[in-house]
Design a protein that fits this description.
This protein is an alpha/beta fold. 37% of the residues lie in helices and 13% in strands. A 5-stranded parallel beta sheet has the order 2-1-3-4-5, with helices on both faces. It is globular and about 30 Å long.
């Protein structure tokens, strides 16, 4: 199938997870390139010029949050939409927001939620001008990791929940 939806760089130390993500995205028309950890991601990102990067958090050599921070720090990759696809702690989510991660999907995830997240990130307007702030939206694929309040709030709505900074206007 020809890639018509864009190129995604999938970074995860588990070969099984990389293949699972690859197959699901390729079935939707995405071209997928993979890396086994953050260090490999940084080596290939300039060569493959992805439209979206997905990162696991816990990986050898260079973890996902440090990788995201390095991608944001480089003028060549600062514009890339980044999603964390991992089983994260609330502290990981806060760190992800502080380094500029655009989306989050909890493992285990529904493949349809993965595709929706990548499509949403693919459609984000880029680049974000310096000094205007970033919008941090997290799509939760597993309600098991949500706080009780967020869980109650999400039960009231059938669409994926997005958290935005209090000082940012709602979309």
């Amino acid at each position: 199938m020809a890639a018509t939806s864009g190129r995604v760089l999938v970074v995860d130390d588990s070969e099984v997870i990389r293949q699972l993500i690859r197959v699901n995205l390729e079935l939707e028309g995405f071209e997928v390139v993979t890396a086994a950890d953050g260090a490999e991601c940084l080596e290939v990102v300039g060569r493959v010029d992805p439209d979206v990067v997905t990162l696991d958090v816990v990986m050898p050599r260079l973890d996902g949050l440090r990788t995201a921070a390095r991608l944001r720090a480089s003028h060549r990759t600062a514009h890339l939409p980044i999603a964390i696809v991992s089983a994260c702690t609330p502290a990981d989510l806060e760190r992800g927001e502080s380094v500029g991660v655009d989306g989050y999907l909890a493992k285990p995830f529904d493949p349809a939620e993965l595709i929706a997240l990548v499509r949403r990130l693919r459609g984000l307007p880029r680049p974000v001008p310096e000094g205007t702030g970033r919008r941090f939206a997290y799509d939760f694929g597993s309600i098991a990791q949500l706080s009780a309040q967020t869980l109650r709030d999400s039960a009231l709505s059938e669409r994926p929940q997005e958290l935005v900074r209090p000082d940012e206007p709602r979309p």
